[in-house]
Structure formats: structure tokens, C-alpha cells
User: Fold these one by one.
Assistant:
Number 1:
Amino acid sequence: MTDRITLKIFDIVGGPVWVSTEDGQKVFDKITAAFKAGRAVDLSFANRENMITAFLNAAIGQLYGGQHDDGFLKEYLAFRDISDDDRAMLERAVANARRYFANRPAYDQVWQEVVDEDEE
């Protein structure tokens, strides 16, 4: 995989506000399509006005779900045009994703217990 492509979140989402998981899923889908096509990705955060963790969880976090290992992602996914604050938010989202996917059944069980308690 030597070919690189720049994906601009602004263009994928259609604007500077990145707050929905649906928009995050669009970004995730573009990244995984590029990987499947044998391309490395430079993901551009240019022109961002607002972004929340839920968006990052969908766009980036689920990349850590096992389809690609950390070494692959470090080599084939780079982040561009990103502020220090946004990088810190991204790093938290990635750390949370790694923890979740490392022990998914336990996290899912706790979540189900909470949901069941709320229904009572």
C-alpha cells in the first residue's frame, strides 16, 4: 500500500459541524473503502468548527474493532490539519475504543445491565 489519498472530513460531511454518529459513519466508510482499495489515508480535519466525541467514536474509534491492528493503522492512517485540542480528543476516543474492543463482552454486559435496570 504505497498510494495515499487525502480524505477531507469537511467534504465527506458537507460542512464544518461534526457532531452526529451518522456523519462519523460516513467518514469511517470512506476510510475503510480506501483501505480495501489498497490506499493509505491522510484524514484532514481542516475547516472544522465543531466536533464531539460521538462523531470521533463512529469515524475513528470503530477502526480499532479488530479489522485492522494498531500497527496497520499507525502506518496507513495519518491525521492532518488537526489542532492540539482536537488531537487530544481524538487520542481519548482511540484510547476508549481500544479499551472497549479489548474487552467488548464485559462492556456490553454492563451496558445491558444498566439498560435492564432502567426498564424496571
Note: The longest strand covers residues 4-8.
Number 2:
Amino acid sequence: MTETLWPDVSDIATLSQLVNRIASQHGEDAIKVVVPNGKAAMRVTQSLREAGSSITATTIYRALEIVKADNDFTFLHTESNPMTAKFYLVDESLRSGNEMFARFISAIPDNGELLLIGDPVIQSESLVHGQLWPLLTPITFPAKRRFKK
């Protein structure tokens, strides 16, 4: 089931409204806004600024914090070293690849809340292998259900 929070409002406006509501109750440090690429991060950050928020949107890679290791890389945040925010709002979530999104979800702390934002009708397909929404849409979620690992 797709839950419409604000009908006829763009997902970026919805995101801005959610960020402001959550920040008013929990503070901006409790929120992490995540998008699939740098261009989207700049656009979302600008919209958040226009809505009065100082939160900076980031990519999944930056949220997980890349750590160089020899000729390879790994992530600082994993299941054993989770991220620190309480609320994770993922805009353009349709464009996230399955493998990176699985890493992202595993790095959300046990008390973390995850909200996926996206429009399956007009949004572009995944940037990399996998498509998140086709995996989720056959499942019916009760409204306001908490996503768990």
C-alpha cells in the first residue's frame, strides 16, 4: 500500500514538511536526509534551506562514510557500527540499488526510523543494479509501520 501524506504536493515539499515537523520535536541532529546522488543532494539541500532547515542532504555513500583500506574501500557505518541519527528520510528512494540500500538499512540503529519517499509513476529507474520499489510494492504495509532490519 502506498501512503500519501500530502496529496498533490511534490515529494521535495513533503520531505521539507516532514523534516520541519520532526526537527521541531527531536532537533535537526536526529534527522539524516539521504538521496541517491550528489545532484539530488544539492537540490534537496537547497529546498530544505528554503523551508528554513539547516540540514544538508547526503548520498548513501556519504551517510555510510567511506573509509579507504589499501587498494579498496569499506564503510565506517555498518550493522556493528550504526549511524547515529534517529530518523532516516530517503528521497528518490526508487533510484537506490539493492546492494547499497541493504548496506544502508543494516547501518540504521535498532531504534532508528526509516521513511522512503518517491513517486513510482514519474521517478527514474534505479541508477545501479536492482530496483527497490518492485520488491516492496507487492507487500502491504499498515500505515505508519516501522521498517526493521
Note: The radius of gyration is 15 Å.
Number 3:
Amino acid sequence: MSDSSMGGNLSKAFAESWEQMPSSKRLLVVVGLVVVLILGIYTVFNSVNQKLEKTIAETESYRKSLTYIAENQYQYKYNHAKKEAMRSKLIAADPKVVSKLTSIASGLGFDVSVSPSDPHKTNDDSGTEEQEIVVSLKNVEYSKVMQYLIEINKLDTPIYMRQLNLTRNSALTSSDTKMNVTVTLLSYRLKEQNAT
């Protein structure tokens, strides 16, 4: 038997069985086929719709990310340049801060006691070393104390004032007020071999 004669026999058998079926059963079969067809179309449409919604959500997420990058690119570049400038400043920091603090005081005409602690690494992973330096001035004129603090601020080395204690001497002179001063400074530097 050939395939075409077999297909013809099958359709003939289906047509005969269809004709013998009561109309209520025919209606039930047609309704069943329509329901199956509608469910199939709905399933395909729903699947396509879910994929489309997922694609739209991903696209919106990418768009938000790109907008964020575009809006914050300047700030990122600014912060990066600022970080690199600080890194360069830390690498170039003069390790002879103590001698500079002493020479500034000598230049202003008074003696100073400088007590540095041992440098230690900071808590971050940058490799930066922090050193606490306590500077003591005794019986120095107020104007010279202020000039000394200004000169410390002008140093190229990253140095920051942590604490300042000013005490006026009880014996006032006719000229400028004499002060006893204790300044706690923090000095930072980054060794080139540790720089990342």
C-alpha cells in the first residue's frame, strides 16, 4: 500500500465516522477542538509576552545603568584624579618632617620640642604610613605661635593637626602674650615600593 492510498482511506474512515456521529457529539468535538486551539494560542502568546516583558525589564535596567554611568562619570573621574593626586603627594612626602618642624621654629626665633612616635600602617589597604608627632612650645609669643601653625600648614607633606592645646602664661609682658602650646600632628606618607 502506498502512503497516498493509506491517507485517503484514513480520511474516508474519518468522514464516515463523522457522518454517523450525532450532532450533539459533533458539536462537543468541535467545541473541544476550539478550546484546545485557543489554549494553545494563549500558551504561545503568554510565553512570547513573558519573554518580551523580561527583555523590556532587562533593557530598562541597562538603560538605568547607562544613565547612572553618564551622570556620575564626571564625579568618578574627579574622585579618581583626586585620589591619584593624594597618592603622588603621599609618595613625595618628605620623611624629614621632624627636622622641618624644628627648622621652622628656629627661623621664627624660638626652640621647640618635637616627639615623633614610630610610624605605623593605617587601617586601610593602601600601604600608607601614619606617624603621630607631638610638638611642644614653651613661653613663645602668641603671634609667633600663630605664624608657626601657618608655616606647618604650608608644608608640602600631608600633615594634619589632630589636637591643639594653648595655655597663656600668667606672667604677662608689656608686649605680646606668652603661650605654652602642645600640638599633636599626624603625618602621612606612602613608600614607593608599597605603592599600588
Note: The chain has a mean pLDDT of 82.
Number 4:
Amino acid sequence: MQQVAVSVLGEEKLLSELGAPLPLDRLVAGNGAWEIEIGFGKGRYLLQRAAAAGSRRFLGIEMAGPYYRLARRRMERRALDNVVLIRGEALYCLAAVLPVGFATVVHVYFPDPWPKLRHHKRRLFDPETVDLVLGLLRPGGRLDFATDHLDYGQVVCRLLDSHPLTAVSVLRGLWEDGARTNYEAKYEAERRPILRLRVDWQPAGCSHGLHPEGLQGVLAATSIRTEEEEAAE
């Protein structure tokens, strides 16, 4: 597996040098709210948001090395000191690298739908992985999602809508700030149908925070007693 790399303005380190979960408050100064983009591609939206909202802090995850390096160069040219870029596999970063419940907004735009049945477990939104994505959010946080693969989008919509801690809205038309990625701008020009979802996290209390379908994949172990302990009863 490729080593996880972490970049801030003027510096790049490996995860092994920083430890996990990442010490985000040491990487980026200030106390502004965090926004995350999972799969930031060439960095168009992430860096635009960081430049426009300087009081906020931004983190992006991208597995493709060329895209990560391009976004890093753009971050340096724009002197954006409120950005953390991570090169790594998204589910690994969500499960083992990032802290839980620290983000106000999570952005996911046009993720790989992995259409073949045998590849479904690689999807970012799956019953057993959806809580890794939603678990990044603070109570009252928000997920923005878009895809042009409508069949996959309907799967994601159903999955999110059946979560006990979400309220899902389907957006009609573009986001309030227009097309957010190069793909979205291209698909809008081509008039390709796009499904956009806005998901509010934890609108009401609940006894647990896991997706009910994902619970089937959770392993629970009872205590193991020795033969001596059993004989003593």
C-alpha cells in the first residue's frame, strides 16, 4: 500500500511522522470550522472554498498521486495556509487517520460508482462504510453529495435516507454557488442528469448512530472464560 502523505503550506510529511489520528489543530492554526472533500481531484472546489472562506479550515483526501501533486502546487501558488491535503485511500483515512466528529461539512462529488457487483464493497457509500463518512461530522453537520450515475445515486439516497441520524433532501438544479467540480461543469454543459443530495446529520436523538444494515457486519465478542473459571461456578 502506498504510504499516506500529508501536505500543508510549505511542508509535506508522511503519516508515519505525524501519527494517527492526525493532529489537525497543530497542522492548521486557528479555530475555524473544518470542511472535508473526499476525492478532491485536481482541487478546483476545495481550493476555491479555502480561498473564499479564509476563516475556515479545509481538508482534502485524494488517492491519485498526480492529482494530489497538482493540487499541492496550486495550494502553494495561492499561499493557502488553511488547507490540509492527504494522499491516501479514502476508507483507510476515514477509519484510521482522521478523528471522529470534527467536520462541519463533508463534500463528496462524483465518486467512483464501482458498477460491477464484485466491486461494490469498494464503494464509499455502502451499508458497512457509510458510517465512516457520516462519522466525520459534528452534530448538526452536513454532507453534500453529487453523482451522474443515477442508479448508484438512488442506492446512496436510499442508504442515507434509511439512516437513523440523517435527513436527506434532493436538490433541484445547481448548488447555490454553481458547479463545484470540473466534472459537474462539463456534465451541466452536456445537460447530463445529475443527482445532488444534501444530508443533515443527527436531526434528532437516537439510541445508536450506526446504519441498521451496517450493524449486520459488526462483530461482537462475549467474554472468554477459562476452564478453571467455569469449574468454579
Note: Confidence is low (pLDDT under 50) at residues 219-230.
